[in-house]
Amino acid sequence: MCGIVAYIGTKPAQPIILEGLKRLEYRGYDSAGIAVLSVPSGSKTGQVKVVKKAGRIANLEAELKNVAPAGLPGTLGMAHTRWATHGGVTDLNAHPHRDDKAGICVIHNGIIENYAALKTYLQEKGHRFISETDTEVLTMLIGELYEGDLEAAVQAALREVTGAYAICVMCENEPDTLVVARKGAPLMVGIGAGEYIVASDASAIIAHTTQAFPLDDYNVVKITRQGFRTSTTSNIAVNPKVMQLELDLEEIELGTYEHFMQKEIFEQPQSLRNTFRGRLQKDDGKVVLGGVSNFAKELVRAKRVILTGQGTALHAAMIGEYMLEDLAKVPAVAEYASEFRYRNPIIEDQTVVVAVSQSGETADTLAALTEAKERGALSLGVVNVVGSSIARETDAGVYLRVGPEIGVASTKAFTGQVAVLAMLTLFMARRRHMSTDACTRLIEDLESIPGKIERILEQDAAIKKVAERYCERENWLFLGRGYNYPTALEGALKLKEISYIHAEGMPAAEMKHGPIALINDGMPAVFIANRGRQYDKVMSNIAEVRARGGHVIAIATEGDKEIKKAAEDVIFIPDIAEQLSPMLTVIPMQLIAYHAAVLRGHDVDKPRNLAKSVTVE
Ligand code: M6R
């Protein structure tokens, strides 16, 4: 979603905020803009210059070269990448926006839900709008309420709005002030030496400082070059918790890879080693999860677990549902957060809700979590981004520790989420009924996963050939059963989101109930056919597709001789307990999707219309 960077200090703002903006490109956007405030010598007030363009940041840079070849002067500035919600992708709708009265300038991530009513009110007051955006309405409202104190005007305006926002505001009358605020969309303040950098996430801050604090909902921070003050929209003082950012600059750079998605696929052996580190105690048949240990009793007594998330996170949650019922013997269900929230769900006593999210900022998941908490559930987070909203809102949780995921298509977060849910399952199962031996065997299998993924990755060139053979086909099927039904959904999602090929994932058995009509000559059907309880049934489904002219790409277990006769293409994975197999079976599908998208000429890290973190409902 939209990316926000702002700077106040003593250095020229433009290069700092443009560089930060580039680090936020991965979030997904369709236009970009910048505003810098300069103070003419002898003047007490400043002048804001805004440059904004539809399209990539490169378009903005070209425009900047035209209008200000030496760069926009000034040491206070803000920059924004917009992901359109209200109004088309145009230069005028891009941020920053300005008011028509008080010299106010605003960038915003989120949606002002009551913008229509506010706009009518402001139009009646004589304001003239030039864009179609909700953000311009908020900007005019701040200007309307401005009486010489920017912080007070922002607080007053935010008391009038409903919806979600992360905003940065500056004002020509107050050239030493930047006001930022948040509700429902991420924003953090980086504290440097005599300078501050505000951004949607740490990746735009880390090059300048490792000291930062995230804003909580309804927080307003007034920042000057001398210091900052945090309050609520009702002007009650707040003490923010400053933390040490643990991000390493190298982790957010491409290195020798061509794309972040490729880098992150290949990072999975290492990212999973980090996920497991210190948490698996094979000899005792125990899993140690510090983040939830205070709630061990509640987890043992849990009568029901509801897992929730969106997209890839939901697919991981579905695997968690299967593991919890199968291994921990606790009733479990996985559900889209967006549906859970609005269907008036019944939350009985001793229900645990697990919110699964890479970013920890997905608005639907956050809203579902809030709903579940209000209805009395114990809430756990399975989250990657430390200090994110979901991580802070949940009662307890387990971090993925897979490092920053920049590629819009989620890969290492998926295997990290499944790994954490597997450990959570064993944590509960051992305390409920599972024997030490049974747990030890599964821990051994978990420990073997990074090495086994390395062996699958060695087949990259052969997997690329499969992608080459079929990448021109516009319709694909992904089929699996049991634990690998959610993995089939994930394979289809990967392919469609970056290659724009239509792909459907479903339980292999469901095919006969309708989708089989789609199969025509040469249609690629990816079958997850690893050894497991339903292997024979999957083999029958493969035969049904072959009989109708479909081309079968099978993901099978090493040593399976039958499969070679049954499928056109076979990608082998090492043997593993069926419950943990999704962490292996997904790897060939990630690689097929990656290569197909590159072969079709797409920018896999910036797929059209997509945002990395969806912070609006
Ligand atoms: O940050 P989250 O894990 O909460 O994000 C959830 C989905 O938006 C995300 O998984 C999305 O589906 C990805 N683009 C999938 O690759």
Q: What does it look like?
A:
The chain has 617 residues and is an alpha/beta fold. The protein has 3 domains: 249 residues, Glutamine Phosphoribosylpyrophosphate, subunit 1, domain 1, CATH 3.60.20; 202 residues, 3-Layer(aba) Sandwich (Rossmann fold), CATH 3.40.50; 159 residues, Rossmann fold. It is 36% helix and 22% strand. It has 19 helices and 26 strands. The strands form 5 sheets. An 8-stranded antiparallel β-sheet has the order 3-2-4-1-10-9-11-14, with helices on one face. The longest helix has 22 residues. Bound molecules: 5-amino-5-deoxy-1-O-phosphono-D-mannitol.
Oligomeric form: single chain
- Counting H and I runs of at least 4 residues, what is the number of helices? 19
Distance N to C terminus: 12 Å
Radius of gyration: 26 Å
Q: What number is the mean pLDDT? A: 95
**Strand segment tally:** 26
CATH superfamily of the largest domain: Aminohydrolase, N-terminal nucleophile (Ntn) domain
